[in-house]
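## retry 2 of 3
previous attempt timed out at serialization; input unchanged, resubmitting
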Amino acid sequence: MRDADCEGSQSKIHNSQFAIRNHSAYTLVEVVFVVVIIAIIAAIVIPRSRGSLHTRYLVYTTTRHMAADLRLARRLAIAHGSTNSSGYSFRMIGSVPYTGWRVRDESDASTVGIDKTVPSGVSVSGTQSAITFSTIGEASYSGSDLTITNTGTPTVVTYTIDVIQATGHVAFTES
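## retry succeeded, writing output
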């Protein structure tokens, strides 16, 4: 008889623990409802943040490419200084806002490489449309002249390219 009583009490304990655990769990409907709400919020937020990240990256890479081509013009002017006294230049294409840029050999006015195009969504402006580097790497112009930013509103990011006249040093900063 005692064994039967023990089995009955163990069964009651087991059932009461199960009942408590069952009350603390979420139903499938509640879980699905929360997942749907999170999915709706993500569908609204993620495209907006991806667009601004894409825009930031596009402006940044355009700035890096322009700075690299400015440095290329300077290096070519120094490297070919003994045979090319006219130097090399970095020239903007089009009017403000510029549509592209090129590196040019000033001795024969030939383009080095290919013309680069400013991607859509990016705006390049400035008052100096050409910077020529001498055989010692000196720039014909110095200052914070080229500004690269995104088009449209709001402005996500803006970079400025600086060229130091005496040394031809090229740097860019985020404003």
